[in-house]
């Protein structure tokens, strides 16, 4: 019996087809058990659970300067705004606009070209003030709460991935489970990892499998581990006592690489780094 | 407000790109920067160049701000879309041999080829192969409004032109960008006597958005307009009886329409709704890079990634 057809059946077969397949496989294996199937280790399904970036990346100094420059060029090329169409004469929005426009023109063209202050602006009441949270407010809150690596809001500008620490060897691993006979990869993940009775206790978290197809495979001799992609949408994983893990951590790509390399899993990192968007071989340019 | 100021606006705005390309006399060199009376005063005092043969160099305006939805697509959506739309079956299939092209005559050389016909139908659209280099993406967004009153009264189009211009902010070749066509007036292709429509009549207005302008439109649609629609269940999905091989299902274009009140929720229009004689309903077309089998489903997956909800009737 070969394991290949099972991993290739990506579409969830209907119940009748599955029962027929079950019958066929069980009868064939009972009548003529091949030597390879009895020795082959079970397939392992692993989950690459991640949280998408919460914030857009902060523009660098160069980007900021470029944006400012382009904006001033755009401003100088644009035709003057027909204020009589967009504003009522003498209204507060018009006076606000004229004031802001004059300030911006003074900034980009200088005093001489911007001309004098527009007349009859009068008193402009301040606009409603909104509380603007600083970009690192999650970080500061986590520091106060002492959440550390368990905080889901770590590195809000980057994608963070879930890693678990195993009980026996204290090694950091991806959440994974053994795929039972005639079980599909996504079923195994849903039942044993992110489901309500799974290792990560799905009752306290909302997660989503991107696709039923595997996004990567790691081969160690006969052993094959298929990776599925998932996103956490809300909540937190709580490790059940029956699972083989002690704690979890949300790590960005650099930390995942560091942790795997430090514990001697260099080979594993080399085979999974493609899933993190890192090319297989660094292109050397001479 | 009547349509008179609208008309003057529309006519004046169409002159602007011509001004940018042509050589500009020194007295009006700063005319585009601020109100013309002030700047002409300052430029007559000191001219930066002594000669009059100075022409405005070609200026390309780059992005003026980081685009939120564009970054969302590149950082979050694209990898998921690749995994969701990747077909192992298609990837393992050996590539089909290209259909044999009939020999070309001297007339046909260097002219666009007509489609290869099977019976009276063109050959099936080739399915887009999804891989790392070819992830489903939005190519452009088209906003289109048909104004029925324009058949009897052409000036009824003006408010639609102005509204689309305010929403999109596009001008022909604006910012030195090739391919941005600005707001276009569409003329009828065929006559329809029942509606007193004759071929060549201007009946509708459209604007095609690409690049960052497209993502900015999606942002204002999704963040300001859709949350404020009353009893909005989502964009209705086509019924499940829609044939999978129909030309519409193979093109990878997601389209839907909105009623006139929707237009008033755009912040660009909301600030001065009184200035428009009337508001118009409009169609939005999301043009994606997908073609062929499952193109329509995958295109909707892509569009729903931008927080546009769909619902089954």
From TrEMBL, chain A:
Domain Large ribosomal subunit protein mL46 N-terminal: 43-122
GO molecular function, one term: structural constituent of ribosome
GO CC annotations on file: mitochondrial large ribosomal subunit
Any matching Pfam family: MRP-L46
InterPro entries in the record: Ribosomal_mL46, Ribosomal_mL46_N
PANTHER family associated with the record: 39S RIBOSOMAL PROTEIN L46, MITOCHONDRIAL PRECURSOR-RELATED, LARGE RIBOSOMAL SUBUNIT PROTEIN ML46
The name this protein goes by in its record: Large ribosomal subunit protein mL46 N-terminal domain-containing protein
Organism, as annotated: Kwoniella europaea PYCC6329
From TrEMBL, chain B:
Sequence ranges of Polar residues compositional bias: 1-14
Key words of the record: Ribonucleoprotein, Ribosomal protein
InterPro entries in the record: Ribosomal_uL5 (IPR002132), Ribosomal_uL5_C (IPR031309), Ribosomal_uL5_dom_sf (IPR022803)
Region Disordered: start-end pairs: 1-72, 91-118
One term of GO molecular function: structural constituent of ribosome
Start and end residues of each Large ribosomal subunit protein uL5 C-terminal domain: 202-310
This protein's record includes keyword Cytoplasm: no
GO CC terms: ribonucleoprotein complex; ribosome
GO biological process: translation
Biased composition (Low complexity): 21-47
Top-rank taxon, per record: Eukaryota
PANTHER family recorded: 60S RIBOSOMAL PROTEIN L11-RELATED
Family membership: Belongs to the universal ribosomal protein uL5 family.
Name under which the protein is recorded: Large ribosomal subunit protein uL5 C-terminal domain-containing protein
Organism in which the protein naturally occurs: Kwoniella europaea PYCC6329
Lineage: Eukaryota, Fungi, Dikarya, Basidiomycota, Agaricomycotina
């Amino acid at each position: 019996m070969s394991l290949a057809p099972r991993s290739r059946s990506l579409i969830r077969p209907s119940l009748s087809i599955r029962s027929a397949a079950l019958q066929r496989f069980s009868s064939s294996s009972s009548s003529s058990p091949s030597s390879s199937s009895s020795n082959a280790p079970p397939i392992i399904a692993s989950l690459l659970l991640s949280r998408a970036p919460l914030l857009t990346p902060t523009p660098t100094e160069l980007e900021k300067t470029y944006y400012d420059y382009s904006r001033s060029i755009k401003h100088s090329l644009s035709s003057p705004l027909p204020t009589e169409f967009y504003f009522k004469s003498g209204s507060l929005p018009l006076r606000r606009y004229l004031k802001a426009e004059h300030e911006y023109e003074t900034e980009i063209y200088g005093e001489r070209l911007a001309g004098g202050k527009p007349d009859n602006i009068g008193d402009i009441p301040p606009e409603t003030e909104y509380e603007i949270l600083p970009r690192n407010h999650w970080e500061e809150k986590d520091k106060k709460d002492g959440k550390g690596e368990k905080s889901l809001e770590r590195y809000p500008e980057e994608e963070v991935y879930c890693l678990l620490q195993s009980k026996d060897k204290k090694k950091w691993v991806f959440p994974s489970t053994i795929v039972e006979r005639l079980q599909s990869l996504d079923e195994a993940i849903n039942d044993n990892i992110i489901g309500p009775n799974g290792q990560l206790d799905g009752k306290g978290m909302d997660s989503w499998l991107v696709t039923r197809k595997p996004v990567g495979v790691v081969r160690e001799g006969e052993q094959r581990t298929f990776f599925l992609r998932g996103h956490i949408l809300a909540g937190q994983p709580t490790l059940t006592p029956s699972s083989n893990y002690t704690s979890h951590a949300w790590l960005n790509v650099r930390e995942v690489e560091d942790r795997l390399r430090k514990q001697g899993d260099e080979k594993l990192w080399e085979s999974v780094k493609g899933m993190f968007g890192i090319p297989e071989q660094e292109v050397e340019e001479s | 407000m009547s349509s008179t100021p609208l008309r003057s606006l529309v006519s004046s705005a169409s002159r602007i790109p011509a001004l940018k390309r042509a050589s500009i006399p020194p007295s009006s060199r700063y005319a585009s920067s601020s109100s013309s009376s002030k700047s002409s005063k300052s430029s007559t005092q000191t001219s930066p160049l002594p000669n009059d043969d100075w022409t405005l160099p070609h200026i390309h305006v780059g992005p003026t701000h980081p685009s939120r939805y564009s970054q969302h697509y590149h950082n979050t959506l694209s990898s998921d879309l690749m995994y969701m739309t990747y077909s192992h079956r298609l990837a393992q299939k050996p590539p089909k041999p290209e259909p044999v092209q009939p020999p070309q005559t001297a007339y046909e050389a260097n002219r666009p080829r007509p489609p290869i016909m099977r019976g009276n139908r063109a050959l099936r659209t080739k399915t887009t192969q999804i891989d790392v280099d070819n992830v489903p993406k939005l190519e452009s967004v088209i906003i289109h409004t048909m104004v029925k009153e324009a058949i009897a009264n052409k000036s009824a189009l003006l408010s639609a032109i102005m509204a689309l211009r305010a929403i999109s902010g596009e001008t022909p070749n604006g910012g030195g960008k090739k391919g941005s066509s600005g707001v276009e007036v569409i003329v009828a292709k065929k006559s329809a006597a029942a509606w007193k429509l004759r071929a060549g009549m201007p009946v509708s207005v459209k604007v095609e958005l690409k690049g960052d302008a497209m993502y900015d439109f999606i942002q204002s649609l999704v963040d300001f307009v859709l949350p404020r629609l009353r009893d909005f269940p989502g964009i209705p999905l086509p019924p499940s009886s829609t044939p999978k091989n129909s030309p519409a299902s193979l093109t990878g274009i997601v389209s839907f329409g909105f009623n006139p009140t929707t237009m008033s929720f755009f912040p660009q229009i909301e600030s001065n709704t009184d200035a428009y004689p009337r508001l118009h309903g409009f169609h939005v077309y999301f043009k994606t890079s997908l073609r062929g089998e499952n193109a329509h489903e995958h295109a909707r997956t892509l569009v729903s990634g931008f927080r546009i909800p769909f619902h089954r009737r």
